[in-house]
Write a structure and sequence with these properties.
The protein is an all-alpha fold and about 200 residues long. The chain is about 90% helix and about 0% strand.
């Protein structure tokens, strides 16, 4: 009986020891799980923070990637899911705006090219004033075409030279008439001078 009692006591101690080991293991696992949860939560917070910074700087693809990682780590994170949806929408809006800007730039480029071709035609037939106006229009439509400025300056020089030539042509008859007038006046003075001398001799 004593032997049986001793055996039962040892078995009891063994069971208690095993139970204690199980409880300790469960406690360790719980602690480990809690730490993992904390680490995951911290990682999600960091991903969301970095995603927000990227989105504010217009790096939408990077922001979306970071928010997707956050949702993958914590599928039930309302903040991560909400920020991902926001980033995707802003990215779509940005791409739409970019397409509109590109289309507008293409439209301006085509319009500028039309006026530039017209200016070249007018310049080739000597209509420099009209060519200048068309180049000005082309440049106002597409200010990036700085090369047009040189063509405008060339047309302006030609127009200035023409104006100077026209001015000189108009002034030539006047100068000629003035010169003739001076000659007539000189002859009159000489005539008067001769008459005065004749009177003096008489």
């Amino acid at each position: 009986l004593e032997t049986q009692g001793g055996v039962r006591g040892m078995e009891k101690l063994k069971i208690e020891r095993e139970s204690r080991m199980v409880r300790d293991r469960e406690a360790q696992l719980l602690e480990l799980k809690t730490q993992k949860d904390v680490d995951r939560s911290n990682r999600v917070t960091d991903l969301v923070k970095r995603g927000g910074a990227a989105m504010r700087q217009g790096r939408y693809e990077e922001a979306i990637s970071l928010f997707e990682e956050a949702v993958k780590d914590e599928p039930y994170s309302e903040e991560a899911r909400s920020r991902l949806k926001q980033a995707e929408q802003e990215y779509l809006d940005w791409k739409k705006t970019l397409r509109q800007v590109e289309e507008e730039e293409q439209k301006k480029s085509r319009e500028a090219e039309f006026h530039e071709r017209l200016a070249e035609e007018k310049f080739s037939v000597g209509d420099f004033a009209r060519a200048l106006e068309e180049w000005k229009t082309a440049l106002s439509v597409n200010p990036r075409r700085s090369d047009i400025v040189e063509k405008m300056q060339k047309a302006e020089r030609i127009l200035r030279d023409r104006e100077e030539q026209e001015r000189k042509k108009k002034e030539e008859p006047l100068e000629k008439e003035k010169a003739e007038q001076r000659k007539r006046e000189e002859k009159e003075r000489e005539k008067e001078h001769r008459i005065e001398k004749l009177f003096e001799r008489g």
